[in-house]
Amino acid sequence: LLLLLLFSSSFSEMPLVEIVLPIAAPESVETVHKELAEIVAKVMGKPVQYVMVRCLWNESLSLGTSTDPCVLVKLNSIGKIGEELNPKYSEALCNYIETTFEIPKERTYIQYFDLEKCNWFHT
Question: How far, CA to CA in Å, does 43 sit from each of 47, 102, 111?
Answer without folding.
Answer: 11, 22, 16
